[in-house]
Amino acid sequence: MSTTGQLEHSHLAPGTPLCAGCGGLQALQQLYRIVGERTVVVNAAGCMTLLAVYPFTPFAGCWLYTAMACAPAGAQGVRDALDIQLAKGRISEEENLATMVLTGDGSAYGMGLSATSAAIDRGLDFFYLCYDNEGYGNTGHQYSPATPRGAKTATSRVSGYAGFKKDLFAIWAAHRPSYVATAIAAEPQDLARKVKRAAALHGPRLLLVLAPCPTGWGFEPALTVKVGRLAVETGIWPLKEYVDGHIVHNKISRERKPLVDYLRLQGRFAHLFEPQCDERQLAELQQAVDDYWQEVVDNTGPSP
Amino acid sequence: MKRTLLTGNAAAAWGARLAAIDYVPAFPITPQTEIIETLAEWIDGGVLNARLVTLESEHSMLAAAGAAAVTGVRVFTATSSQGLLYGMEMLYNLAGWRAPLVLVNVSRGLSAPITLEPDHNDVLAARDSGFVQIHCATCQEVLDNVLLAYRLAEDGRVRLPVIVNLDGFYLSFTREPVEVPDPAVAKTFLPAFADLGQRFRGGQASSQAVAVLGGGPYSYFRYQVHLASEQAAAVYTELGEEFGRCFGRHYKTVETYCCDDAELVLVMIGSFATKAMPAIDRLRQAGHKVGLLRPRLVRPFPAAELRRLLQGRRGVAVVDQNLSPGQGGILHAELAATLYGLAERGPLLASFVGGLGGRDISEEEFLQIVEVLQQAVDSGEAPPPRLLFTAEELKQVRRLQDIAHGGQVGKGEDAS
């Protein structure tokens, strides 16, 4: 089980300047309760950078903001400095801290990918939480390498994003770290199980959390959980884990909900439905999800 | 005391070893690499109890360096040129974090065109970051100033990261006799890492480098860096004297050579300043009152000391081994700002740019610089800024251009 403590008060204080209904903050709340305050959160530029604004912080533990490209390297410095002091007897085990990187998709999928790759190469003992809101959220939601095909963003306003969402889970897993998982706050039990599992391991442990974003995706804050559940139920956000060299899907449903149920709730996809339905693109998007799951079933067999 | 032949790079590594560093985030780049290779060998061989980690870039290297320093260990790192610029964002960050660490920069001209040889545009690009800058002219100075830099960085009145600069090739790969201080004495001069209360510990909530809202807090914290840097000049003077008492070598913020009665003064930084000395010796023998002044600190800029030393001189020639396109020599502009508005009329100021990309400066050229300066002083008119570049060099470049363009350059010139 977790060695980093499960203290009663290890939750984030309320009153942060983040948007109402932030799916990333929900995930962080759930995670922080488990990893606890004996943690240094090392942050890269993004929405969450505004959690700690002088002189306030919602964290009961420690926080270090670095820059957009190098949060994993900052975590390396903190981890090494703590290990050096432990080895030289300058601090006790009680003064030790866990190291956790917190970034959005803009950093994780792009500018910070090199630093993440290298941290995994070095076997850095750290936890990485990426809240993936599928765009450069903090600057007004321009498209990022995590943006799904067809989504309107501030830099794809006319006909939606022409690219495809990058498979960061596969890129991370290809490095063969200790642990990689996808999760979402709308599935809290799954998320908690994964965080606890990761907390019990050593080495690089990475969690990629889809973060429904009312502001950037165009839906009412009250719908965050619903949108999140539909992301899983339609199969567009597969819940899975990489551990011991294997990828395991946590939910393989034979009866996935149609993708339009998920898309229709979000303003960023409204152009696919109005003024007239873009049947061709909707079919393509559905086909991509179906193809993904067909491959999963072909490789693993249907779930019991 | 025993002296050994050491390269500038080895001297820097010895400085780090005697400083009993804990941590070396590293990334190789010419001409700095020998420093981290030397440290890696000592660490692997068990003579230095530290940890070396190779990051994937200088940006990450500096992030790790700063993070470790604010977590409470003594950090040493080194880079050059492109590496320093690649990490530029983190230089500003580390100064803002008030991370007390030492970075050795081995100067090398910046791309493009790419080159390996030295000038100071790399380190001067970091001029406004908040790092203190110490510029060295000898291998001995490199070693000694790494020790001094830690005292400066960890002094409560300063608490800023410090760059110790040496010139690529001319110092980095050149062996000079260096006196390696006795480790016990070094330890007396530089005790264990000073706990400035800035650290991450279990059981103590601590936030670093958080955002601020509005220009008020930003102005406050940024100006604190400025004030701390300004303090560093007096603290360096104090530490330089203490260093002299410990090791017999005294260090000042500004070094002088034949300056006492000098009417004309050359101002230069780094190892190329030593090239001016034989020329000054020759001029002195011929009865000219010429001296050399070498700021060792570039940040903070030792303005008060420079004013004191230059007051009453007739002419000053700044030889900048850097170029700010559209402006000229950087130190010339800084010195002009320093000397402007003196109570009595300041010396006539002349600007020369030389030594770009490691281009040598000959003794003959130093003599010419002094001649131009003398004429300017006599006529009372400052000469236009001048690049040290000979007709023969231009001919050589034309030859290269001719080859590059398949013989077209020469033809074009003939036609015009």
Task: Please describe what this structure looks like.
The complex is a heterodimer of chains A (304) and B (416). With 304 residues, chain A is of the alpha/beta class. Chain A has helices at residues 23-35, 71-87, 105-111, 113-121, 168-174, 188-199, 214-218, 224-233, 259-263, 279-300, and strands spanning 39-43, 62-65, 98-104, 126-132, 179-184, 204-210, 240-243, 246-249. Chain A has one domain (23-300): Thiamin diphosphate (ThDP)-binding fold, Pyr/PP domains (Rossmann fold), CATH 3.40.50.970. In chain A, 35% of the residues lie in helices and 14% in strands. Chain A has an 8-stranded mixed β-sheet with strand order 2-1-3-4-6-5-7-8, sandwiched between helices. In chain A, helix 1 (23-35) crosses helix 6 (188-199), helix 2 runs parallel beside helix 4 and helix 3 packs across helix 4 (113-121). Chain A is globular. By secondary structure, chain B is of the alpha/beta class. Chain B folds into 3 domains: 3-196 and 208-247, 3-Layer(aba) Sandwich (Rossmann fold), CATH 3.40.50.970; 255-384, Rossmann fold (3-Layer(aba) Sandwich); 389-416, no CATH class. In chain B, helix 1 (8-18) packs parallel to helix 7 (139-153) and helix 3 packs parallel to helix 5 (88-97). The longest helix of chain B has 33 residues, at 215-247. Chain B starts with a strand and ends with a helix. Classes of the chains: A alpha/beta (304), B alpha/beta (416). The interface between A and B is large, with 48 and 42 residues. Strand 2 (62-65) of chain A pairs parallel with strand 9 (207-208) of chain B, so a sheet runs across the interface.
